[in-house]
Amino acid sequence: MMSIQFFILLFIVLTYRLDAKNFHPGLYKADKHHITILNDDNYRKILFEEAGKSMYFVEFYAHWCGTCKRYAPIWIKLADEAKSWKNVVKFAAMNCGDSLNSPACTDLEIHMYPTIRLFPVRPQFNPPLHGATDFDTEKKSIFLSQILDEVEKSNKTFWPNLKPFRSQNLNDIFPIGKRQKYAFLIIENDALIAKKTIMDFSDFLDTFVIRRTSWNENADLLKNLKIDNSSLPGLVVIENINDRIFYRLYNKNLFKKDSREELVSLIKEYIQTAPYINHQLLTTTKTPETITTQKSEKINKIVSKVSMQDLETGLHLMLRNEIPHSGTIKEEEFYALRRWIRTLAMYFPGRIEVRNYLTNLDRKLSSIKSSQITGDEWIQMTKQDQNSESYLPESTEWVHCKGSTPNYRGYPCSLWTLFHTLTVHQYKLRTDMSKSGSFKLNF
Predict the structure, then answer these.
(1) How many CA atoms lie within 13 A of 20 on its CB side?
(2) pTM above the 0.90 mark?
(3) Does residue 161 come out as left (phi exceeding 0), alpha (psi in the -120 to 50 range) or beta?
(4) Cα–Cα dist 216/209, whole Å
(5) Contact 315, 433 (CB under 8 A)
(6) Beta-ladder partners of 211
């Protein structure tokens, strides 16, 4: 005989199922199309109550509407192009053709399909538009441009700065009170491409700076940088090392096809090898999936021809066995050591944990006020603060550098391999870059 508890439980389950809303699937899938699906249950929370920092660009449609069905591929394409802008604007859609969404569509006063509406950050629930702006559905080709104009007019510090950089002093590109070490100045006559590129890195506002300028906006600066119209589009890389500013100019010949794709690729590639950057952040945060870095693929093919274990074993023996042999490393030897560690931090093409280790070692060495360090202090520095995201294995095993007996090859082989690999990696990263001024690492 069934217990009364069973019937109570069955009643609760059936009641829940009857109360649950089975919304129509509509024309979009959130996980596939980078589009937030709004409905009568969630739209108030998402649009009006969440303490977010993003605008919402919403299409109100009906799944049975022929015009809406033809419009859907356009909305999907726009959302895909702007998917890396999610910290600034998110695409969304609500199916007003679903009767379960009628109360919401009534509250929002949707009278035609499709209706395109941009909701600001944390709007007030204040009918009829709730502070939102309606867009002309026929002007879909300029939707992204209109959104970028909204961002540019805004003074929100948690959004990218899309205004042109007009200062003649490169120091001014770094915001006061922040500690970014790198900045990228896009020199592009096509402001739309520059703005889209800046937005593509909106996840990294606290990591590095990206701004834009042009001859019309900042002719004096470009003259000082020896950049002419034939060098456009271009990219200036600015490094702020110990409060000294250095810059490099990427050559125009890099930009043969899609300028936005090239710009994103170059910035991403540079940052992935730069010291003072949390490389783990770059590897775990999704960047635009449409961007492919062909140069990085070429580098990986070259690196794969040598044994990474040989390189890491060579580093271990050099840093922890050979260098500490000096009782005290001082003056010229100390500055040479700093230059060498900086070079390793910038150009060692190994796995992310070892690169992070070298970057941290470079940072600690650069923080020393004096011009010397003892061997014991150095060995302690090389062994401290190792963790799962930053370490150098204490390996003494050789692979390609293994000799017929322990007396042959080994460490000398790893050093030559390391020098060659660093040279090739540096060349591949910088071969298309021409210096627009004297560039020296600061030590």
Answers:
(1) 7
(2) no
(3) beta
(4) 21
(5) no
(6) 185
Between CA 206 and CA 282 the distance in angstroms is 12
Neighbours of 116 (CB within 10 A): 19
Cα Rg for the chain, rounded, in angstroms? 28
- 246 contacts 182 by C-beta, under 8 angstroms: no
Which tens digit of pLDDT belongs to each residue from 346-398? 888 888 888 889 988 988 998 888 889 988 899 889 988 788 888 898 877 88
Please give the Cα distance from 127 to 180 (Å, whole number).
42
**First-to-final CA distance of the chain:** 85
5 backbone φψ class: left, alpha, beta (φ>0; ψ -120 to 50)? alpha
How many CB atoms within 10 Å of residue 370?
7
The residue type of 311 is L
Average pLDDT, the chain: 80
Structure tokens at 234: 């271009």
Average pLDDT of the residues in 285-302:
40
- 185-236: pLDDT as tens digits: 998 878 999 999 999 999 888 889 999 999 889 989 988 888 877 767 788 8
The residues, ordered by sequence, that sit 6+ positions from 225 with a Cβ below 8 Å of its Cβ are: 236, 247, 249, 436, 437
**CA distance to 71, 84, 89, 353, per residue, from 233 (Å):** 34, 22, 27, 35
With 0-12 CB in 10 A as exposed, 13-18 as middle and 19+ as buried, what is 342? buried
Q: Do the Cβ atoms of 334 and 376 come closer than 8 Å?
A: no
Across 271-276, average pLDDT: 67
- How much helix, strand and coil, in percent to the nearest 5, is found in the chain? 50, 15, 35
Joined together, the tokens standing for residue 28 give 């979009």
